[in-house]
Structure formats: C-alpha cells, structure tokens
Write a structure and sequence with these properties.
Largest sheet: 2 strands, antiparallel
CATH architecture: Alpha-Beta Complex
Protein name: 50S ribosomal protein L22
Strand order of the largest sheet: 1-2
Helix content: 25-40%
Oligomer: single chain
Shape: elongated
Subunit structure: Part of the 50S ribosomal subunit.
Order of helices and strands: HHEE
GO molecular function, one term: structural constituent of ribosome
GO biological process, one term: translation
Radius of gyration: 19 Å
CATH topology: Ribosomal Protein L22, Chain A
Low-confidence stretches: none
Family: Belongs to the universal ribosomal protein uL22 family.
Number of strands: 2
Structural class: alpha+beta
CATH class: Alpha Beta
C-alpha cells in the first residue's frame, strides 16, 4: 500500500540481499506503467508484491572416490503489481 517512491526508498536502505533485484523490478514496473499506460508515477502505489519459485538448474559437483553430489541452483520469479492511488 506504499507509494512507488516510498517503497524504493525503503529498499535503498534495506540490508537484505534481495532488496536490489526487488527494487529493479519495482522501478521497471513503474516505468512500464508510465510509458505504456500514461500513468503518473506519483499516483502509483504497490498493490501486491511476491516471489514465486522458478525453474531449478541441476548441476553435479565431483567429489572423492569418483562420486558426484548434486547441486540445485534455485531461481525465482519476482512479481510487483501497481495500482493507482484513489483520492
């Protein structure tokens, strides 16, 4: 329910590692709303934001005695839904 500028400022000072990619998605969604739909950035609020599980890349790590351990490289899909602030 925060404005786009307020949410971006919060993500600037967040210490969590995922704050940077989430901020990039947020700013991209705001730019898309401005360019594609002619919305004003000041009127946009974050209606919903979530991360879903993406595809998992499976890799092998060779270890001793000719064996191999599997490595799962997990990915995610970040979704940010913006809405126009009702006045």
């Amino acid at each position: 329910g925060k404005s786009v500028n307020e949410a971006a400022a919060i993500l600037d000072y967040a210490t969590i590692v995922s704050a940077e990619p989430v901020k990039k998605v947020l700013l991209s969604a705001a730019a898309n709303a401005e360019h594609n739909y002619g919305m004003d950035r000041g009127d946009l609020i974050v209606a919903e934001a979530f991360a879903d599980q993406g595809p998992t890349l499976k890799r092998m790590n060779p270890v001793s005695k000719g064996r191999a351990h599997s490595i799962l490289k997990r990915t995610s899909h970040i979704t940010v839904i913006l809405d126009v602030q009702s006045k």
